[in-house]
């Protein structure tokens, strides 16, 4: 049942606007069926400086017009059944769209694929089996303004990532041309390839300004990529795995091999490939989607499942990287 509140509002005009930033402290509404999880969310709110203005359970979700005025909506999805989780996520998206609130969804590993498939991950904080610190961090982030200021203009996180990506691409192009100029004629064949790559100086909107190789360049072998993934995992037997955490690259490798093998990769499988906690992996997946390197594909046979794949931009980047490294005599995969 819902907690009582005297701060209810009845029209969209009364709803808080995310474009104007949030009140201080942020007003939080919690949805949880389990008493322990509800208390964990409240404890995290206290640590994050948020004010809990109401709580609700799975069986009596209020209409948008009946929900107390809030800045943040936190859904503790465990132990919801698949049908209950679908209803919770749909309700959360409706509330977020109507009230302009920030949405945080906490779920179990078993619920991961469905939670991602039925949620707009780019605009929602997804926490898989979170601890106290992860809840506190999510609430602190949700309580901040959704945009940042750069050079006197408002810039979203996704725009900032794309801008930084373009800067890196320009630097990479200059370094590539310098390196290839000094290494011309010194390349030799490597395992997993059957032709000599030849760098072209052409660039354009399809490559983001980076050097591109001939379209006839051979593709890397999936077995060689899988071997590198195994080698990277082997380090964990001898060193602290956190010393080598590189989820973006680990996911790129896994998705590149999967594309060459023509197999689909579920969100939960990709999180495992990232070799970091699921919540961290989900943040990286969102970042890579915003950067135009990953794309989400819905399962046409199961609306509760989604897959992640490389975009054509990322695929060409990985392919050209492998060929360029081989030309320098480097064995990357």
Descriptive account of the structure:
Helix content is 42%, strand content 14%. It is α/β, with parallel strands linked by helices. The strands form 4 sheets. A 5-stranded parallel beta sheet has the order 2-1-3-4-5, sandwiched between helices. Helix 3 links the parallel strand 4 (102-107) and strand 5 (124-128). Helix 6 packs antiparallel against helix 7 (247-261). It starts with 26 loop residues before the first strand and ends in a 6-residue tail after the last helix.
- Give the low-pLDDT segments: 1-23, 145-154, 179-210
Supply the number of helical segments: 10
Number of strands: 11
Order of helices and strands: EHEEHEHEHEEHEEHHHHEEH
Q: What share of residues are in beta strands?
A: 5-15%
| Strand neighbour order, sheet with most strands | 2-1-3-4-5
Rg measurement, Å: 23 Å
Largest sheet data: 5 strands, parallel
Look at the structure and give the mean pLDDT. 79
Helix content: 40-55%
> What class do helices, strands and sheet pairing give?
alpha/beta
Measure the end-to-end span.
56 Å
The best one-word shape is elongated
Summarize the structure.
This protein is of the alpha/beta class and 333 residues long.
Features:
333 residues, alpha/beta, 5-stranded parallel sheet, two-stranded antiparallel sheet, 14% strand, elongated, disordered N terminus
List the helices and strands and how they pair.
Layout: E1 27-32, H1 35-48, E2 51-56, E3 72-76, H2 82-99, E4 102-107, H3 112-117, E5 124-128, H4 132-142, E6 148-150, E7 153-155, H5 157-183, E8 199-200, E9 212-213, H6 222-234, H7 247-261, H8 267-274, H9 278-290, E10 294-298, E11 306-310, H10 312-327
Parallel strand pairs: 1-2, 1-3, 3-4, 4-5
Antiparallel strand pairs: 6-7, 8-9, 10-11
Helix pairs in contact: 1-4, 6-7, 7-8
């Amino acid at each position: 049942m819902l907690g009582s509140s005297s701060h209810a509002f009845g029209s969209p005009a009364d709803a808080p606007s995310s474009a104007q930033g949030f009140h201080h402290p942020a007003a939080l509404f919690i949805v949880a069926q389990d008493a322990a999880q509800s208390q964990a969310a409240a404890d995290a709110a206290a640590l994050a400086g948020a004010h809990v203005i109401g709580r609700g359970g799975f069986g009596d979700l209020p209409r948008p017009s009946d929900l107390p005025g809030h800045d943040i909506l936190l859904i503790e999805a465990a132990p919801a059944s698949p049908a209950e989780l679908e209803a919770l996520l749909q309700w959360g998206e409706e509330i977020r769209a109507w009230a302009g609130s920030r949405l945080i969804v906490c779920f179990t590993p078993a619920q991961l694929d469905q939670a991602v498939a039925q949620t707009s991950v780019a605009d929602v904080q997804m926490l898989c089996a979170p601890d106290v610190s992860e809840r506190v961090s999510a609430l602190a982030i949700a309580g901040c303004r959704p945009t940042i200021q750069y050079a006197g203009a408002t810039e979203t996180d996704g725009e900032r990532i794309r801008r930084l990506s373009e800067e890196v691409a320009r630097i990479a192009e200059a370094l590539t041309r310098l390196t290839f100029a000094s290494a011309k004629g010194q390349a030799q064949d490597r395992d997993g390839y059957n032709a000599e790559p030849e760098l072209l100086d052409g660039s354009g909107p399809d490559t983001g300004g980076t050097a591109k190789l001939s379209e006839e360049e051979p593709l890397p072998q999936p077995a060689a990529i899988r071997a590198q993934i195994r080698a990277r995992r082997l380090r964990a037997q001898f060193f602290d795995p956190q010393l080598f955490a590189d989820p973006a690259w680990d996911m790129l490798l896994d998705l590149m091999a999967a594309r060459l093998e023509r197999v689909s990769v579920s969100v939960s499988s990709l999180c495992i490939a990232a070799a970091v906690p699921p919540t961290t992996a989900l943040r990286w997946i969102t970042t890579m989607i915003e950067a135009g390197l990953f794309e989400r594909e819905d399962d046409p046979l199961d609306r509760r499942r989604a897959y992640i794949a490389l975009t054509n931009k990322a695929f060409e980047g990985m392919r050209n990287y492998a060929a360029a490294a081989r030309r320098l005599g480097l064995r990357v995969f």
